[in-house]
Amino acid sequence: MFARPLTRIAALAGALLLAACGTVSREAFDPIDQRIGAPAGLSDVRYSAADANAAMSKSTIIKERRERPGDFNVLALSGGGANGAYGAGVLAGWTAAGKRPQFDVVTGVSTGALTAPFAFLGSQWDDRLKAAYTDGGTEGMISFKAITVFKGPSFFSAAPVRHLVETYVTPEMLKAIAAEHAKGRRLLVATTNLDTQETAIWDMGAIATRAARGDNHALELFHNVLVASASIPGVFPPVMIEMDGPSGVFREMHVDGGVTTPFFTVPEAMMLWTDPQGAVHKGNLYVVINGQVGSQFGVTKGNLLGILARSYDAMSKASTRLHLAATAAFAQRNGLTMEVSEIPDEAEAQGLNFKADNMLKLFQMGYDRAAAGEAWRDPAAPAS
Predict the structure, then answer these.
(1) Residue 256 annotated as catalytic
(2) Active-site annotation holds for 110
(3) How remote is the C-alpha of 299 from its chain's centroid?
(4) pLDDT per residue over 126-159, tens digit each?
């Protein structure tokens, strides 16, 4: 799905191989700092998906909410770059069909992280979600004007991504997220901590609660987490997140959450876990894959770029299919009904094509499928 844009970027890389690329200046810190450290002025707002104890502790309030009467609904939004417009369309079309539930937990990875706050706040935010993906604000994300390879460790500047985040993460949004967080609902975003090589899970509702009270550190962190989760390594620069540790202030390096997980439903430390008490009430798990998951035949070109592009695409799809299978098994063991939506394999999808016409086409595809009741399938059924 990324073949054409990746080929263009790889071609540019070949032309710049002899150039001195920029770097990010860093100071060393030790594992104790990392393990104990917390974002400046904010504790208990994130944990590692590999930390079983932290995952169980953070799951307590979710478990309590699940024990309330009524369905327990979880929405997970995957990465996929520009293909995130598809997931945005699915949400809006789901609203139009009159069948979209309120979600107790919403999670986002990469482009899914940018969608997640809107999805968390409900259907009344659909118009703003559509605008974020289709009003042309994404046009300059991948362009020669944005090349920064000589200044930093990426081909393109993160400025367009950060501008998008700062435009749509308004005081109104932060207050609304904080209000829903206070009710026990949870908004979670995944980034990849390159220093630990682990998935970091951020409690965005807890951060928004502080930001809504005027805490500028929390506001900056909310922005940084969303930008980091969408920062494809090499394409956009990593985000340095300041932490307070026993030895003083240090900075962690965070990139696209999709490096370590295609979407987030269950911390990896709990993926094999089964609730000993069983399911108390019905639960529903909805996973939106902003991309394609099926294998596609194509004679691979015999050059370096063709091999790299095809290999990346195969690796990405295989990882997503394996993660879907593991999540489906977890859901079945723990009383959750799971449904999946993805871009049909026969459709054209280019994850790095941020042009407005492509984004609108993907949005409309998702909208039409959801409005017609055709967007969702059982994970055991073949991909469309």
Answers:
(1) yes
(2) yes
(3) 31
(4) 999 999 999 987 776 665 555 555 566 777 888 8
